[in-house]
Specification:
Order of helices and strands: HEEEHEEHEHHEHHHEHHHEHEEHE
Keywords: Cell wall, Cell wall biogenesis/degradation, Hydrolase, Secreted, Signal
GO molecular function: hydrolase activity
Shape: globular
CATH architecture: 3-Layer(aba) Sandwich
Subcellular location: Secreted, Cell wall
Family: Belongs to the pectinacetylesterase family.
Structural class: alpha/beta
Number of domains: 1
Number of strands: 12
Protein name: Pectin acetylesterase
Number of helices: 13
Strand content: 15-25%
CATH topology: Rossmann fold
Oligomer: single chain
Strand order of the largest sheet: 4-1-2-5-3-6-7-8-9-12
């Protein structure tokens, strides 16, 4: 009996692995070597890097640039902790990455963008590609040069064909989603005026909310990120002219002034935000929230009430996006973080849907202006199509 169960589970696991392999493909790394001479480097001084799958056919002059996530470092200590990892050095990055979801090259899994030039930019500056500090302390060898790296990457892609782009999307997941928001108009200015440009932020709409202890943890953290990296000069002046630079790291304070069309994908119960903004370890010293943060099904009624209030606060902050047809959104009621780059949540038979619409269709409808696309889900646990993550 036990052997039969084991064989069954092994068959299931093998089937899942075969399915995932059929949905994804590996893409090699490219280093932007000439960026080093410009000081446009990762935290450790190594060149920025990306993975590039070339477009074909009708998509040969269309470009999708997706920035990787990985949170932020807010002081010398936390930046040193990531300097010699893949989040601070291209020397530590794997040579191949798996592409799927919005980066898939199969029409079945990515009907609107499968044949585009698809680029995944590796994250190695620790401040969503906004920093620029000239001085480098020889004791730490920390380079805060994310804004320069952003420009160097775009220029490198321009030299490889993006200068002829008909269509271009600047996208990103998590901290990369914030990159797409904060650099949206900058990207628009860097590519040819004739190119149709839009921006897409997946799980990048981080809100300025107090934690469960009542402290402004994320606001203080973002202020430290901006100060450490010298980001203020690269944040939208439409925001920094009105409020403290740290507050201009929050999308809700910069999105109203962004001129370029923008789409927001986000879970209303974003798992990263629940774990790090609403109930960070410093506000939960007794670990009361630990089980809940790992699995939403283990949340107590009181914790769920607090999370429902967080959702309402998130939706209020999201109102800054507005209702212009150029602004799209897909806000599901899942407990998840980053949904565009994974096939199971981007487009598959069992993918999350809101108003009978998948994330892939909502984004495609918005980009190609087939219909206005602003989808906001009902409250948890109303959506049975959700992929609610369980986290380590």
């Amino acid at each position: 009996m036990a052997d039969a169960r084991l064989r069954t589970w092994l068959c299931v696991i093998l089937s899942i692995q075969i399915l995932i392999k059929s949905e994804a493909f590996n893409v090699g790394i490219t280093y932007v070597q000439n960026a080093v001479a410009k000081g446009a480097v990762c935290l450790d001084g190594s060149p920025p890097a990306y993975h590039f799958d070339k477009g074909v056919g009708a998509g040969a002059n269309n470009w999708l640039i997706l920035f990787e996530g990985g949170a932020w470092c807010n002081n010398v200590t936390t930046c040193l902790a990531r300097r010699d990892t893949r989040l601070g050095s291209s020397k530590q990055m794997v040579k191949e990455l798996s592409f799927s979801g919005i980066l898939s090259n199969k029409q079945k899994f990515n009907p609107d963008f499968y044949n585009w030039n698809k680029i995944k930019v590796r994250y190695c500056d620790g401040a969503s590609f906004t920093g620029d500090v000239e001085a480098v302390n020889p004791a730490t060898n920390l380079h805060f040069r994310g804004a320069r790296a952003f420009v160097a990457i775009v220029e490198d892609l321009m030299s490889k064909g993006m200068s002829n782009a008909q269509n271009a999307i600047l996208a990103g997941c998590s901290a990369g989603g914030l990159t797409a928001i904060l650099n949206c108009d900058r990207f628009r200015a860097l590519v040819p005026a004739r190119t149709k440009v839009k921006c897409l932020a997946d799980a990048g709409y981080f809100i300025n909310a107090k934690d469960v202890s009542g402290a402004s943890h994320i606001e203080n953290f973002y202020s430290e990120v901006v100060a450490t990296h010298g980001s203020a000069k690269n944040l939208p002046t439409s925001c920094t002219s009105k409020m403290k630079p740290g507050l201009c790291f929050f999308p809700q304070n910069v999105v109203p002034q962004i001129q370029t069309p923008l789409f927001i994908i986000n879970a209303a119960y974003d798992s990263w935000q629940i774990k790090n903004i609403l109930a960070p370890g410093v506000a939960d010293r007794h670990g009361t929230w630990r089980s809940c943060k790992l699995d939403i099904k283990k949340c107590s009624p009181n914790q769920l009430k607090i999370m429902q209030d967080f959702r309402l606060e998130f939706l209020r902050a999201l109102s800054a996006v507005g209702t212009s047809p150029s602004r799209g959104m897909f806000i599901d009621s899942c407990y998840a973080h980053c949904q565009a780059g994974t096939q199971e949540t981007w487009l598959r038979n069992d993918s999350p849907v809101v108003a009978k619409t998948s994330i892939a269709k909502a984004v495609g409808d918005w980009y190609y202006e087939r219909i206005t696309s602003q989808k906001i889900d009902c409250a948890y646990p109303c959506n049975p199509t959700c992929h609610n993550g369980m986290f380590d």
